[in-house]
Amino acid sequence: MLSIYLAFLEVSFKRQITYRIANWAGLFTNAFFLFFKVALFEAIYVGNEVVGGLNSTSAMAYAGLAQVLVMVIPQWGNIGVGEEIRSGQVAIDMCRPVNYYFLTMSKRLGISLYYVLMRAMPLAALGIFVGILIPFKNLAHIPLFIISVVMGSWIANSYHFLVETSAFWIENARGLKTLSTGIIYFLSGIILPINFFPVWAQNISRFLPFEYTINVPIQIYLGTGSNIFELMFFQLIWCLVMSAQCIWVLSKGENQLTVHGG
Amino acid sequence: MPLIRVENLKKEFRVHKTSGGMMNSVKGLFFSRGEVVNAVDDISFGIEKGEFVGYLGPNGAGKSTSIKMLTGILVPTSGDIVVGGITPYRDRKLNSKNIGVVFGQRTQLWWDLPPIDSYKLLGKIYRRPSKEIQLKIEFLTELLELQEFIKSPVRKLSLGQKMRCELAAALLHSPEILYLDEPTIGLDVVAKDSIRAFLTRLNETEKTTIILTTHDMGDVEKLCKRVIVIDSGKIIHDSSIERLRNRFGNHRVLEVEYDEFSEFSLPENVTTVKNIGNRFFYQFDSDKIKAPELIKRILEHNSISDLSLVDVDIEEVIRKIYHEKRTV
Amino acid sequence: MIEAKIKGKMSYQKSYILELLGYFVVTGIDFAAIYFLFESFPAVKGWSLWEIVYLYGLGSSALAIAQLSGEVLEDMSLIIRNGEFDQVLIKPISPLLFLMPQSFRLDRFARLAQGVLASGFSFYYLNIIFSWTNVALFLCSFFSLIIIFISLFLANAATSFWTIQSSEVFNAFTYGGVEMSKFPLTIYKRWMQVLFLFFIPIGFVIFFPTSILFEKENLLNFPKFSAFLSPFIAIAFFGVIWVYWRVGIRHYQSTGS
């Protein structure tokens, strides 16, 4: 069973590789943004003060790492589910002995893996080279960090999946997509670390899944925030919650499809 | 002075051969190793105003390349083109004012809009006074019977309806020359007929010079007075349609239904192609023996209940031309 | 042409409202982010909240207007690939003039409105006087920025004549440029300043007029009148790109699709 999903992961990964030229240009843009964000966080600190647990150096590292991970843990963009539902492709997938949600997640993880190689690694190398990112102090943290990133990606992709399943019921979901993307974009901590949010906002964010996509893995890397295991535990909870929601909505949607037709 | 004059026209393309693999792609980025293809290889012809010319050739023969040069889209490698006194690729805008183009598979109408809105827009693009465009729209609507759907968005129209609207769009600015690329492709018989009737009328009354690229021999037989055949970039035939038929001899087939058949010797140059019971098919070369003569000979020996005469099939002729070219 | 586009758009009404709503929320989020930032930090290299909001407003509205005419150019490689560009060449009109009005999208007005509002608010909170000079300074930046953005869209489109896949590099400059322009040029490293002052003059046309408007000291050793050079720089930039575009069309006509 698992092998089917792994196969899709692999296929998806290979497919991404064919978009070579587009990737170099994207990498270029990504690097650009990295420098912008880092410069901003350098400029806002006047001295050595610590705000939200971050000083100038760690804030810059935060910004740098956020850009490194931005494609691996996707904040925006279409994951294709909306189109597949509208075009009827999902009906075809439903005839296969696989669960469409897990199928999609396999494909997305394949894509994330691709971006780890083609974006995260080069950008991380760049970040280390210019001194923004420091390699891990505690080597034991590396596997934990990786797991955290995977979970973050899982949550983000599940969220997008959830939003796009609206296609089962709504014809033009562009507004919804814009709205939902804005929300995750803001609350994941990618434009502004959650640490810089006013306290009331931080409290609300804690009960939402978004900060567990990017903010948490970065916290783990920086060593700030509370206990690593506590953070990862919450990530796991969110992974399960999001998956459950997706599966539930999917079955409702499939029902809709079979009852009402395409 | 011909309206369209083409002399020693050549168009070369550099085609990149990319063998697969990472290394070769990288190499491909730096060294364009390409071979030169002569899409159009030294062609010449002249077309007078008011002619209706069929431009034929197998796929990849250089048809669309030459049309693109005539319409100003492509720049030739060498040779002269003069259309209406100007060189298309040099004075593109001026040339555009005088031509109408219909691409069979693509449309110049805006997808979401009803044709009538597209027409008004086109009127502005061609800088025609709105009164003139208004009259032209009415005229073409009448002629092409567009009334029923001219106000529906293009995406809702059938193929035949779309093609008629497309023709109207190409003719709004009353161009002297009309280029048609596969206009009847995919259409049903009724639609084809109405479009052919329209084109014939256009050519006869407005004296619009029409150049038609098509694979449909029915189009050629019914519409074209002259046929130019191109293959592998070279012109292999250029004549009136009668001469085309006669190229391999003027073969006709006489079909006869005998009341009762009794043997008789056939004249020279007549062969029996096949027979089914009392129905006989005779093929003969009309240059060597005329039909009445053959019929007379038949009637001398037999009585018949029915007969019919079929002209040589253009498609067959074309096929022979290609074949001849290949084996030469 | 524009009227026709609007007509076409009106047919998608209901989902449309949701879209507009989406855009407004996204804008609100942009603003919230800056607001939160300034709750935690007093200033960005000496620039205050509303000054930054002004920069945001300027960048967004200029981009919105540029997109109203330039966005179709982003699809250039698609247009070339399905033969639509041939249709353009057959018309007695300059390809640019034909293509640009097709970019017109009503929802860009949402972003424009947001940008203008932002600028407006910043004026109010900063107590800027509407003197001739100040208006001129604003218009200098605004006008020049629009032209530069359109030029970048055009450069993107022109590159499509050579490479099959679209040239995202210029997107990096356009959207990256907008991102960069949201904060004063002084926060960036030397090489980035040089890039956006002399090569893609987004920085040039924003920073100097705005610094004078807000009476900032640090002008990077440039004389004050540099601010008013902006429109000329922008037009020169456009000129260069336009030549590139013409060369691209010529290339297309020589090599076919």
Sequence-ordered SSE layout with sheet pairings:
The complex is a heterotrimer of chains A (262), B (328) and C (257).
Chain A (H helix, E strand, L loop, with lengths): L1 H16 L2 H25 L11 H14 L11 H7 L1 H6 L5 H30 L11 H24 L9 H14 L11 H8 L8 H8 L5 H33 L2
Helix pairs in contact in A: 1-6, 2-3, 2-6, 3-6, 3-10, 6-7, 7-8, 7-10, 7-11
Chain B lengths: L3 E13 L5 H9 L3 E14 L4 E5 L6 H8 L7 E6 L8 H7 E5 L11 H11 L4 H15 L14 H13 L5 E5 L7 H17 L3 E5 L3 H7 L2 E6 L2 E7 H6 L4 E8 L11 E7 L2 E7 L5 H11 L2 E7 L3 H14 L1
Parallel strand pairs in B: 3-7, 3-8, 5-6, 6-7
Antiparallel strand pairs in B: 1-2, 1-4, 8-9, 10-12, 10-13, 11-12
Chain C lengths: L1 H9 L2 H28 L8 H22 L5 H6 L2 H6 L5 H5 L8 H19 L5 H28 L8 H14 L8 H10 L2 H12 L12 H30 L2
Overview of the structural elements:
- The complex is a heterotrimer of chains A (262), B (328) and C (257).
- Chain A is mostly helical.
- In chain A, 71% of the residues lie in helices and 0% in strands.
- Chain A has one domain (2-260).
- Chain A has helices at residues 2-17, 20-44, 56-69, 81-87, 89-94, 100-129, 141-164, 174-187, 199-206, 215-222, 228-260.
- The longest helix of chain A has 33 residues, at 228-260.
- The radius of gyration of chain A is 19 Å and the shape is globular.
- In chain B, the strands form three sheets. Chain B has a six-stranded mixed β-sheet, with helices on both faces. A four-stranded antiparallel β-sheet of chain B has the order 11-12-10-13, covered by helices on one side. In chain B, strands 2-1-4 form a three-stranded antiparallel β-sheet.
- Chain B is α/β, with parallel strands linked by helices.
- In chain B, strand 11 (270-276) and strand 12 form a beta hairpin.
- The mean pLDDT of chain B is 85.
- In chain C, helix 9 (168-181) runs parallel beside helix 11.
- The chains are: A mainly alpha (262), B alpha/beta (328), C mainly alpha (257).
- The B-C interface holds B 13-14, 65, 68, 71-75, 89, 92-94, 96-97, 99, 101, 103, 106, 108, 110, 112-113, 117, 121, 124-127 and C 1, 4, 7-8, 11, 82-84, 86-87, 89-94, 98, 250, 253-256.
